Amino acid sequence: MTDITVPQLGESVTEATVGSWMVKTGDAVSRDDVLVELETDKVAVEVRAEADGVMGEIFAAEGDNVEIGAKLAVIEAAGSDAAAKSEPAEDSSDPAPMAAAEPDVKESKAAGSAETVEATVPQMGESVTEGTIGAWLVKAGDSVEIDQALVEIETDKVAVEVPSPVAGVVSELLVAEGDTVAPGDAVARIGEGGAAQAAPSAESQPSEGSTDTKTMPSAARVIEENRLDAGAITGSGKDGRITKGDALKAAAGAPAAPKAAPAAAAAPVAPRETGPREERVRMTRLRQTIAKRLKDAQNAAAILTTYNEADMSAIMAARKAHQEAFVAKHGVKLGFMSFFVKACCHALKEVPAVNAEIDGTDIIYKNYYDMGVAVGTDRGLVVPVVRDADQMTLAEIEKEIIRLGKRARDGKLSIDEMQGATFTISNGGVYGSLMSMPILNAPQSGILGMHKIQERPMAENGQVVIKPMMYLALSYDHRIVDGKEAVTYLVRVKENLEDPQRMMFDL
């Protein structure tokens, strides 16, 4: 006897609702057959048979709420209840055909189970419980190598590729672009060896075209409860299947039933129609999160910005004088960012409020300096963290920034590499920005904006001289940082940049 229980559904998910049972008591089942679909507030999960046998008692009815680990049903051994189901076959035919039938069942199972491997969603970080299916890189029938990327999953923090667990042929894609998945969910089936895929692909065709599977079970319940017309709902799932999200969207617009079809055709970003010269593209999960967090920061913090400018002559002269020797010894170029990281760390020690954060009615002062360095990528802005930057040399900072920047552009940053910064530096100057007001990276209370170095006429000792100048902008949370502290901090950064030796002597 094998117990069928509710699997883990994600770190923050504690219960689920039983959807549609695909089998009933007394049905013969094979290992990996789908038994029931569980629905959570984030994703629908299929529970599969863990062994061959016959369905025994079902303990949870459709619509019941069940907790993680709760018993859903049992599968009896084939020798008990299975014998009752096999008796009519034994009465109506001799044992020879029965014996011949068994290998056929096992062959079918071998093709669908022993030789077919599921590609599943990997763990995407400690606090990430779901992601959105991005672009599929393969299609059913494609040959793939082991570890070849099959699909990209977008989360609110990082993009993750799902690799092929084996070399073989893609037999079926289980989820569509835009679907929400959780760690451990199966996204595709891979047949080891090209010949093994002919049967599964042929079997999948009729089932996908059938009326029953055109609407996902979880969606069917929503359609039935809201008395919707399934024919008027445009499915966004694989091969036009109607997903739960499609049904919920249609239910939300149910009062305007005659206009249901046009509403379904419009993208969820905005209700208005797009013109012939417009293109509507759904925001990625990362872009949605960036938008939400930036707006949340503006709503929660009292953001104020103070400006100054720095003469970059000393740093530029130092780089010119020592660049060749620096590269020969450390293998990386001496850039501007390492000087800024050092200057900011040095100033933070003098003005600790800029390195603190508000937690309820308390202020948390941080006696460590983990610097977030904003990096622009094709997917959006990410902020990897240089840990304990105050204890690093210029060469160590440059190497770490190069390493993190490459991982960011390749979409391979881990969650740990983007969490826990105490202060952020954003360099808009690399794109030509002359002046800007950066937005706080919550819950931090300060962010420094670097800008383009531009030669400008400056007054010095009564004479006009041309200097390489950079505008600096410090945005800060006025709830915790007073104006005096913010101005003092920015002046210290300016002084450290204009005379880097101050940092050597701890001035």
UniProtKB/TrEMBL annotation:
Its cofactor is (R)-lipoate. Residues 1-76, 116-191 form the Lipoyl-binding domain. GO terms for cellular component: cytosol; oxoglutarate dehydrogenase complex. InterPro entries: 2-oxoA_DH_lipoyl-BS, 2-oxoacid_dehydrogenase, 2-oxoacid_DH_actylTfrase, Biotin_lipoyl, CAT-like_dom_sf, E3-bd_dom_sf, PSBD, Single_hybrid_motif. Residues 83-114, 193-217, 253-279 are annotated as: Disordered. Pfam families: 2-oxoacid_dh, Biotin_lipoyl, E3_binding. The keyword Acyltransferase applies. GO terms for molecular function: dihydrolipoyllysine-residue succinyltransferase activity. Residues 214-251 form the Peripheral subunit-binding (PSBD) domain. It comes from the Bacteria. Its EC number is 2.3.1.61. It catalyses: N(6)-[(R)-dihydrolipoyl]-L-lysyl-[protein] + succinyl-CoA = N(6)-[(R)-S(8)-succinyldihydrolipoyl]-L-lysyl-[protein] + CoA. The keyword Cell division does not apply. Keywords: Acyltransferase, Lipoyl, Transferase, Tricarboxylic acid cycle. Pathway: Amino-acid degradation; L-lysine degradation via saccharopine pathway; glutaryl-CoA from L-lysine: step 6/6. Residues 195-210, 253-271 have a biased composition (Low complexity). Belongs to the 2-oxoacid dehydrogenase family. Forms a 24-polypeptide structural core with octahedral symmetry. Part of the 2-oxoglutarate dehydrogenase (OGDH) complex composed of E1 (2-oxoglutarate dehydrogenase), E2 (dihydrolipoamide succinyltransferase) and E3 (dihydrolipoamide dehydrogenase); the complex contains multiple copies of the three enzymatic components (E1, E2 and E3). E2 component of the 2-oxoglutarate dehydrogenase (OGDH) complex which catalyzes the second step in the conversion of 2-oxoglutarate to succinyl-CoA and CO(2). This is Dihydrolipoyllysine-residue succinyltransferase component of 2-oxoglutarate dehydrogenase complex. It comes from Maricaulis maris (strain MCS10).
